[in-house]
Amino acid sequence: MKTDIKIAQENQMQPITVIAEKLHLTPDEIEPYGKYKAKIDKTAIHNLENFGKLILVTSMNPTPAGEGKSTVTVGLGDALTAIGKKTAIALREPSLGPTLGLKGGATGGGYAQVVPMEEINLHFTGDMHALTTATNLLSAIIDNHIHQGNELEIDPSRIVWKRALDLNDRALREIEIGLGGPVNGTTRKDGFDITVATEMMAILCLASDLSDLQRRVSNTLVAYTKSGEPVTVFDLGAEGAITALLKEAMKPNLVQTLEETPAIVHGGPFANIAHGCNSVVATRMALTLADYVVTEAGFGADLGAQKFLDIKVPVLGKHPDAVVLVATIRSTKMHGGVSLDELALGENLEAVREGFKNVRKHIENLQAYGLPVVVALNEFLTDTKNEQDLFMELCREMGVTCVLTSVWEHGSQGGIALAEKVVELCENNATFQPTYDMSATIQEKVETIAKNVYGATNVHYSDEALTQLKEFEKLGWNNLNVCIAKTPYSFSDNAKLKGRPENFEITIRSLIPKLGAGFIVALTGTVLTMPGLPKVPAALGISVDDNGKIQGLY
C-alpha cells in the first residue's frame, strides 16, 4: 500500500497559474511562491454580494483509530468538481507541532490530498513564522518597557502575554527569564504557547482586513498594572510594527488537490485550545470565487463546529448551508468500549450500537443550530457490511442520511454520492440559531455550551476562575464570545469518558481574556497551550534522500 507522501510525489501538479484560472483569478491577483503555490491578493474578492454555498465538515469525537475529516473534506471538494460544480476548498494550515509530533499533518490522505503536501506541512509560505515573530516581538517590547523604567507600571507578576514556538516542547511551558543580571532584563516567570494557540493566530483568522487586524492587535491585553488596570498593545504603541509583520501573512494561500480542485489554505488555530477554523478572509474569498466552498473545523463537532458556528459565523456573515459529520465504524466501536487492539478481532455490532451514542449527540447538536446534516461514513477495509448497515439504520432512525464514502482509496469517485447529497441539502433554507445570546454573561455562555453541547449536568469553577469572572464583569468584558479549551476525545473534560457520558460536571480552572480575538478562553481539565512530544515523535521517521526528496512524512 502506497504512503500518502508517495501518492503525492507521484502526482503531476498543474502550475498554480492554471489553478488560479479555475477561480477566474488574474495573474495580477496572485503572487506565486514557486511554481505550485501562491498568495492571493487581498483585493481578489469578485462577488461579495452573492456568496456561494458553504459546506462545513466536522466529525465525531476523534479516537486513535482515525476519522479522516480532512481527507473527506478534500475528497468532497474533488467530488463536487467531478459532478460539474465550481468548487473551492478552504482549509487550515498545518502546525509543525502535530506534523513532527504525533497527530500528523493536515493535507488529507490517500487519493484525497492537497499538494504539494511536504511544503504545506512544513514551512509553506511563512505564515507561521510571521505569527511566531509577531508574538515574540510583543514579548520583547513588554520586557524592554519594564527594563527601561516601566512607565506604565506593569506588574511583572501579572503579564498574561506569552512567547511562542510552533513546535511541541513541554520544557517551555513554564520558564524564568532575565536571569543574567540587571543588564539582561527583569527576572520574572514566563512561558511559551504553541503558535497555533496564540492570540495572534486567532486575530489573523478572525480579522476582516488589515485595518481590522490592526484594531484587534491594538485591543489585545498583555498585562495588568500594579493597581490592577489592563494594559493593551495600544498602550505600548506596538500595533503598527506587529501589523507590518503580519501584512503578507494576511493574504490567503492558493494550492491544489491531487485532482486539481483549487484549495485556499490559510490560518490554523487548534480547536481544543483555540477556535479551530481557517481564516475569515480565506473563507469569504472562496465564497466569492466559487459556487460551492467546502471547509472544515478542527477535532469533533463539540469543539470545532461549535466554535465555527458561534465564533466565526458572526464575523464571516454567513452560516453553513449544509454540515457533513464524518464518522467511522472503527471510532464508533472505540466509543462503544472496544480498545484499539481489539478492533482487529472482527465484527462487533453491540459496540457499534453503543458507540453510536456519540454520533447521535453530535447530530442532535448540529440540528439544534437549525442546519441540515448528512453523515459521511468513511469506509475502512476492516468494516463489515453488517456493521455499516447497522450504523446507517441508526442514522435513518434519526431522520438523517448516511452516505458511505471512500475518497481515501478512490478520490473523487469515492465521494460522488456524498457530493450529490450535499448539493441537495444546500437547497434547503436553513434557519440558523446560535448556541447562546451575546448579551448573556460569560458564566451563562460557558454553562450553555457545557450543558447544551457537551451534556454536562453542572459547571464547577475554581476559586481563581470565580475571581476572574467577577473581575471581567467589572471590566465590561461580558459582551465577548467564549472559547472553551477542552479535551477533544470526550464530550466531557475527561478524555477517558468515551461515547456519550452522562451525569458529569465540567470544571473551569481559569479564564484567559483574548480581547483582540474577541473571546474569553475557558480552560478545563488538564488542557495545555503548549503540547509535548510523544515517546517516539514522527520527526524521528523523516529523512531526505540524495535527490532532496523528503521521505517518511506519512
Per the CATH scheme, the topology name of the largest domain is Rossmann fold
Please tell me how large the radius of gyration is: 23 Å
- Please bin the fraction of helical residues: 25-40%
Put simply, the count of helices is: 19
The CATH homologous superfamily of the largest domain is termed P-loop containing nucleotide triphosphate hydrolases
**In the CATH hierarchy, what is the architecture of the largest domain at level 2?**
3-Layer(aba) Sandwich
Question: Major sheet, described briefly?
Answer: 12 strands, mixed
CATH class of the largest domain: Alpha Beta
Terminal CA distance: 12 Å
The backbone outline, from C-alpha atoms, is globular
Structural class: alpha/beta
Q: Indicate the mean pLDDT.
A: 95
Total tally of structural domains = 3
Total E-strand runs: 25
In the predicted model, the low-confidence regions spanning at least 5 consecutive residues are: none
How much of the sequence lies in strands comes to 15-25%
